[in-house]
Amino acid sequence: MLQRCGPTLPHEDGAEELDTRRLETDLRSPIEQLLRALAHMSTARAATIRTVAQTGAPMDLVAACGLDAAVKSRIARVDPECGVCATAFHDGAMRTASNSCECVRELTGDAAGAHQVIAVALRHKEQPCGVLSLFLDGSDAAAQLPEGLLELLPALGDLVGTAMENTRQADADVLSSVMQERHLLANEVHDSLAQHLTSIRMRTSLLRNAVATRDENRAAQYLEEIDESLAVAQSRVRQIITDFRAQMDAARLLPALEYAIEELRSASGVPIELDCRVREPVLSAYEEVQVFYIAREALTNALKHSQANRVRVRLDERSGRYELLVEDNGVGLDGERAADQGHFGLNIMRERAKRIGAVIELHRREAGGTCVQLTLPARSARREEFE
Length: 387
Description:
Elements: H1 25-42, E1 46-52, E2 59-65, H2 69-74, E3 77-78, H3 83-91, E4 94-97, H4 102-108, E5 115-124, E6 127-137, H5 149-212, H6 216-245, H7 253-268, E7 272-276, H8 285-305, E8 311-318, E9 321-328, H9 335-340, H10 346-355, E10 359-364, E11 370-377, H11 379-386
Parallel strand pairs: 7-8
Antiparallel strand pairs: 1-2, 1-6, 2-3, 4-5, 5-6, 8-9, 9-11, 10-11
């Protein structure tokens, strides 16, 4: 049932498999190697890593060394108060015990033999998030470990805990981003199509009545209005598809903006100037994507609705803040009208800005036209706030 871990042992299918629901593929190999190395150095019968999703939740097995598939399956989830693992987790520290527990019984077949379990809390930002456990033969096995290994285990626990929690948080961020994009898409579809579809339905009812009363003039009028509404709705669907399929084709924000501006300039024939007063803004990849989409949405709106013959994009840094301006010399649009008109996309830009801690404002320019202003704290300023 049980094999002694070590690099010379043959690999058993499933014996060291990670639960991919909880860990990214790129963490699988290093954690498996870590478990094998620790088990080999300590001559442990087995080694496990468990995570705890929240206080009071069961301890889930996410990595194991030295177990066959049947044992691993039986101890895949254990009680949150089980044995020394629970003690180490609650204390946020390393603990050693010889007491019998569910895992020991499964690993040894009985609790009669002498054994010790070393449990090390996995921590992220000083908070426990899981447990690394070594199962040793002998009642004084911990005392026979190589010099320095016991001192090394808590540090390893912090490193593994941080890596696992960062990966889990990255997964959560991706899911949140996908859900937010779906929310934005739903808003855009609603704002762009709801009124047209309602109008089409109302006119269809009127058309039916006109046909029933053989009023050809009214029927022709309603049919023409329905056709116009359908044409507008089709155009908006195409625009939505274009907007949401647009991507940052360049690796960084400035090259991506330059490429998008060149595309819009060629398609519209309107001169678009890029005035960049910073070499390259220091932003995360996620922040760059959101700023890119905000700038592109503002440019698209300026070209579609402002009747401008000149547009300028300016990126600057002032007092620890990045400032993105999209200005046009068109007919102008005040904030209240913009908020009421779904096609302007201001609500979508505001939601994107909120995700990255930025503020977006709409101004009427004194010289005429509209200015969309995005203000985002620079990374250096954000670091100072937490120091």
